[in-house]
Amino acid sequence: MKWVRFVGSLKHSVFKAAENKLFPSYTLTVHKNQNKGDFTNIQDAIDSLPLINLVRVVIKVHAGVFKEKVNIPPMKSFVTIEGEGAETTIVEWGDTAQTPDTKGNPMGTFNSASFAVNSPFFVAKNITFKNTTPVPLPGAVGKQAVALRVSADNAAFFGCKMLGAQDTLYDHSGRHYYKDCYIEGSVDFIFGNALSLYEGCHVHAIADKLGAVTAQGRGSVLEDTGFSFVNCKVTGTGVLYLGRAWGPFSRVVFAYTYMDNIILPRGWYNWGDPSREMTVFYGQYKCTGEGANYAGRVAWAKELTDDEAKPFISLTFIDGSEWIKGVKGALKVRELNDRLMMAERALTDRDGLSGRPWYKHMVYGPAKYDEYGSKSFPGIDDAIDNAKRVKTKASWGLVQHEIWRVSRVIRHASIVLKGVLR
Questions:
Q1: pLDDT reported for residue 412
Q2: Could you provide one GO biological process annotation from this protein's UniProt record (predicted)?
Q3: 369-370 and 373-374 beta bridge pairing
Q4: The last residue of a domain, from among 332, 358, 377
Q5: Eight-state DSSP code of residue 102
Q6: In the chain, is it the N or the C terminus that has fewer CB atoms within a 10 Å radius of its CB?
Q7: Are residues 313 and 223 in the same domain?
C-alpha cells in the first residue's frame, strides 16, 4: 500500500508530508451526462477506488434518478457520497428478500439493499436511498425490501432520505449518526443491531394498518448497541408500535420527540415472547404529541429520569467525541491519514518506539520501502497474500481485521506521541 501515491504529484519525503497533517482528499463526479462527470453511475465511481482506500474521497452525485444497486466493499473506507439535494439526487433499486440471486436462490433481507455500506468512515449528504418495492399486503412473505444497509463502523448521514416499506433502513452494525434525515416505511422500517443516534430526524410511517418503527436486535447484555432518537418526530398513517423486541435485549430510547396520534397506547411489543419483557430496555424522555402519552404504555417500558436519559441524548451514546464533531451538518472526522504518516515515521525509527507496549502490535519484520518511505504493514501484506492464495470470504475478512487493527494502533500512537515522534 503506497500511502504517498494518494498525495498525487507531490514528491516530498514522508517527513515533510507528515507536516501537512492530512493527505489532501480528492473528488470524483457522477453525472447522467457522460460529458459532464467522471462517471455516469455511482457504482463505477466506487469501483474506480483502490482496493484498500485510506484517504477521503468525495463523490459528488449530480441531480438525477440513478437506477442501480450500489455496494461499497469493506476495504474502501473514507468515502463521502454527496448529492445535490435529497429531493433531486436519488439512488433506487427494487430487490426484496425473495428476489432470486445469481444462483436462483432468494437473496434474503441482507442482500436486498439498494445501497449497502460495508466500509468504515462513510459519509452521505443530501441524497435519497430508495427501495421501490411497494407496501406489502398483510401477511405477505419475503417482502422485506431494504433501501439502505449500514454494516460498518463510524458512518454518518446528513440531510438524507431513506424510502421504502418493510425494513427500509437496515441499521446493521457499527456506530452510526443520522442528522436531519427523513426515514419512511411501514413495518420494522428501522431495524438492526447497530449503536445509532438519530438526531432531528423525521420518521414517517406509510403503514396501511399495523406497523412498527423499530426492531432493534441486541442479543446480549454484553452488546453495546441500541437506537436513540433525539429531537425527532414520528408521523404517518396506520397504527404503530414504537418498537418490537427483535432481540431479547433490544434497546431503544425516544427523547424530546414529537409523536403523532398513530402510536399505539401500549407503545411496545415483545415479539411474542413474554420473557423479553424482563430484558429489553425501552424508554421515553420528555416526548410530546398525542402519541407520546405514557399512561397506556406497557409496564416493562420506562419513563426515564434525567439521569437515566443522559447517556442516550448526546454524541457520547455513539462515542461521537472520538469520530464526529458536528458543525452545521458537516462531519469532522480526524482522518486515519495523519496517523499513517505517523506510522511512516515510526517505521523509520524503530529504536525510538520499540519500548512502547503498543509497538509490537504495529510492525514485526521489515516493511517494504520505496523512495518515498515505507509503503506497507507486514500484517496486512501477509493477510492479503493469504487471501489471494485461499480465496475465501474468511480470508478477506482477515484482511479487513488487520487494517482495522493497524488503524486502532496508529490512533493510539498518535495519542501517545501527541503528533511528535519522541
A1: 54
A2: proteolysis
A3: antiparallel
A4: 332
A5: T
A6: C
A7: yes
pLDDT in tens, 35-66: 999 999 999 999 999 888 878 899 999 999 99
* Residue type, position 367, single letter: A
Q: Which cell is 55 given?
A: 484517504
Q: List, for residues 67-77, the tens digit of each pLDDT value.
A: 999 999 998 99
Phi, psi of 159 (to 5 degrees): 60, 35
Q: Find the Cα–Cα–Cα–Cα dihedral 362, 368, 369, 375, rounded to 10°.
A: -60
Cα–Cα nearest to 225, from 242, 250, 190, 246: 250
What is the span of the domain harbouring residue 317? 186-332
Q: Based on the domain organization, do 315 and 202 belong to the same domain? A: yes
Residue 393 confidence class, pLDDT cut points 50, 70, 90: confident
SS3 252: strand
> What is the pTM for the complete model shown?
0.75
Terminus-to-terminus CA distance in the chain, angstroms?
26
**Largest alpha-carbon pair distance within the chain?**
71
The DSSP element (H or E) to which 345 belongs, if any, is helix 337-347
Q: Are residues 352 and 254 located together in one domain of the fold?
A: no
HEC string of 289-315 equals CHHHCHHHCCCCCEECCHHHHHHHCCH
Q: Confirm whether 180 is a catalytic residue.
A: no
CA atoms of 140 and 268, how far apart (whole Å): 22
Cα dihedral angle (325, 55, 337, 370), rounded to 10 degrees? 180
